[in-house]
Amino acid sequence: MLIASSFSLSSQLWLLLTIGVSVITIRSAGGATTFSFLKKRPDKDCQPVKRDLLRQQLGNAYNQRYMAMDDEDLYYKNNQSPPQDHEHVTKRNITKRSSSINIDQITDPAPWTCETSKTWINLGQGFFPRHVRAVTCSSKKCWFGHFQCRPKFYKIKVLRKKVGVCLKVSTGSGSPRWQDFWEEDEKDIPVDCECGH
């Protein structure tokens, strides 16, 4: 009898979760545990989550160098002065007297490499971070025109806003508020180009 009643209770809880009427989640905030509820609500009823909290939720997956939280952050990153590169050196302007030149400073592309350019991809308002740095293949052919340049992808973790779902958050004043619900997602981002068939 005890097994049947616990199965019945488990079935009822599973049904409650799948319907999406009310889902209980436990979140840890600064060591204190707060209970939050998910509810299907119109998006206009949800308050936006501050970008610093979203960054905190993403944790170590957020890379400040390759990600911009929003348009304001992207503007700042695009208008910073770029780091000073080493002097541009090619194989053609190295002489026997250039013993101080490091081979790593040579910038002529080898025939098996693909030329690339950096760009920012706008993932849209429903993603955090909104902008991700990516690489596009500038050249289509490699290895003397016999092979193709193809993008090489890397999977990154981002947050995606769940449309029509709000998270009930307890506040210090005791009155709860509803805010946007963000869940983890993955995106394939081109990070390099490789020469292949």
In short:
The protein has helices at residues 2-19, 51-58, 71-78, and strands at residues 23-29, 32-40, 67-68, 116-122, 127-128, 131-137, 141-142, 147-169, 177-196.
State the main characteristics:
197 residues, alpha+beta, Cystine Knot Cytokines, subunit B, 6-stranded antiparallel beta sheet, 3-stranded antiparallel beta sheet, disordered N terminus
Question: What would the principal axes of the Cα set say about the shape?
Answer: elongated
The N- and C-terminal alpha carbons lie at a distance of: 65 Å
Radius of gyration: 25 Å
Overall mean pLDDT score?
76
Strand residue content:
35-45%
Helices, by number, come to 3
How would you sum up this structure, described in words?
By secondary structure, this protein is α+β, with helices and mostly antiparallel strands. The chain has a domain at 42-78 and 109-197: Ribbon (Cystine Knot Cytokines, subunit B), CATH 2.10.90.10. Helix content is 17%, strand content 40%. The chain is built from 3 helices and 9 strands, in the order αββαβαββββββ. Strands 1, 2, 5, 7, 8 and 9 form a 6-stranded antiparallel β-sheet that branches. A 3-stranded antiparallel β-sheet has the order 3-6-4. The longest helix is centred in the N-terminal third of the chain and has 18 residues, at 2-19. The chain starts with a helix and ends with a strand.
